[in-house]
Amino acid sequence: MHDLQSQITNRIEDAREDLVALTIDLVRFPTINPPGEAYAPCAHYIGNRLAKSGFDITYIRGEDTPGDSDQYPRTNVIARREGKTPGPTVHFNSHIDVVIAGEGWSFDPFAGTVQDGRIYGRGTCDMKGGLATSIIAAEAYIRANPDFPGAIEISGTVDEETGGFGGVAYLASKGLFSKPRVDHVIIPEPLNKDRICLGHRGVWWAQIETKGRIAHGSMPFLGDCAVRHMGAVMEAFENDLFPKLAKKRTDMPVVPKGARQSTMNFNSIHGGETDDFDGLPAPNVPDSCKLTIDRRFLIEEDIDEVKAEVIDILEALKSSRDKFDYTIEDIMEVLPIMSERDAPVSNAVAEGIRQVFGKDPQYIISPGTYDQKHISRIGHLHDCIAYGPGILDLAHQPDEFIIIEDMIESAKVMAFALHQLLTMPK
After folding, report:
1. 1: burial class by Cβ within 10 Å (0-12, 13-18, 19+)?
2. Which fold would CATH assign to domain 202-333?
3. In Å, how far are 49, 56, 93 from 77, measured between CA atoms?
4. Does domain 2-200+336-422 have CATH number 3.40.630.10?
5. What does pTM read for this prediction?
6. What is the pLDDT of residue 1?
C-alpha cells in the first residue's frame, strides 16, 4: 500500500494545474438556481471529461420535478468506471447548481480568478471545487491502480440548493443511490479538509398567510390590513418563540456552535402591492401578507412538536386579535440525520485524513441540509458522509473562494479512502 500511496500522491501533485483549470472551467458555467441555468452544458462538460478517462456516461433528466422545463431541464450526469474484478461501488456525488452571485464582489463571480493560491468565484467552495477534487482523485487513483476491483461512480447533480428534488432525490427514486448498485457515498461539500460530516439538522419550511380586507388607503378603517396582522405574528414569534428556541440545545456536533440550538429564519415577506411595475402604487389596504419561515431543528426534537409551536401562536392570535385569520402551508420538511462514526465510509475517510494530515478528524454535523437526506431516506443507503475541501463559512458569500492546496490535500484523502473502500469485502 505504501508504494501505491506514493504513486497516488505523485499523480495528484502532478495534476495541480489540471485541477485548477478544471475548477475554473466548472465555475464558468453559470449554473444559477433558481431558475436552473446552464445545467445541461455543465453536465455534458463533466461527462465529456470523464469519458476520456474511461467512464461510461449517463445523462438523466429529472422530469416533472420542481422547475424542470424545456428551457431549464434538470440534467444530471452519472459516470461509472468498472474495475477489473467484482467488488463494492464507491460514489462521489457533487451538485453543480449554485446560488445567485449577489452584490459585493471584488472579482467577476463567474470568471474563476486565481490569486494568492486561491480560486475565486461563485461555486468554487460550494461545491465545484469539491467536484473537481473528486474527479482528480479518482483519475489519479485509476492511473496508479488500473486493476482496481469494484466500480467508481462520479455524479454531477442539480437543484441541491433548492432541495435536490430534480437531482439526487429523483435519481434515488430510480434506484441509482441504493444497493446493490452503490455501497458507499462521499459528498464533497465544503466542510473543511480535516473534518467528516456525518449528517445535518432538520428543516421545516412553511408559508404563513394573514388575511385582510381591501379598502382605499385614505380610509383604512373601512378595510383590514393583512400586513398589520403579520406584524403581530412576527412580534409574537419574537416574544414567545425565539427565546424558547435559543434554549434548545443538541448533543449533535453541529458547526458552527451557534447552530447547536434550534433556529428560525424569516426567509421572505410579501404584503400588499408588488413592486414589479413602474410608477406609483395604488392606495390600497393590503388584504394578504405572506411570510416564509425556515425552521431548523435538532435530532432531539419531534417534527410534530416543531410545527405545533408555530401553529399554537397563530391560534392564540386568532382567539385574541380582532379579525385575525391565517393559513399555513408546508413547503418542505426534512428530518435530522446522523450517520455512525464507525461506518465503513467514515472509517476510510478518517484513515485518509490521518495519513495526509497526521491527526484524527473532527466529526461534525452540518447546520443546513444537503443531499445525504435523499440518499438515506429514499435510497435507504446509510453509508454516506460529506467530506470535501472548502471553508463552510464562505458558502454563498461574496468573494467566495477555495484554497488550491486544500483541494490537493483533500484529493489525496479521497483517493486513499477510495482504495480502502474498494478493497473492502462487499
Report:
1. exposed
2. Alpha-Beta Plaits (3.30.70)
3. 12, 10, 10
4. yes
5. 0.91
6. 64
Please tell me if the domain spanning 2-200+336-422 has the same topology as the one spanning 202-333: no
Looking at beta carbons, which pairs linking 301-308 to residues 24 or more positions away fall under 8 Å?
A: 301/202, 301/248, 301/262, 301/336, 303/202, 303/204, 303/333, 303/335, 306/202, 306/204, 307/204, 307/206
Helix (H) or strand (E) holding 246: helix 242-247
Mean pLDDT by 10-residue block, N- to C-terminus, for the chain (426 residues)?
Answer: 90 98 98 98 98 98 97 98 97 98 97 98 98 98 97 98 96 98 97 96 97 96 98 98 97 93 97 82 94 97 98 98 98 94 97 98 95 96 97 93 98 98 86
Identify whether the C-beta of residue 163 lies closer than 8 Å to the C-beta of residue 332: yes
What single-letter amino acid sits at 122? R
- Could you state, in order of their start, the residue ranges of all structural domains in the chain? 2-200+336-422, 202-333
Beta strands 195-200 and 362-366 are: parallel
DSSP type of residue 224: B
Phi and psi at 232, nearest 5°, equal -65, -35
CA–chain centroid gap for 155, Å, is 14
Residues 6+ positions from 353 with CB-CB distance below 8 Å: 194, 196, 359, 360, 361, 413
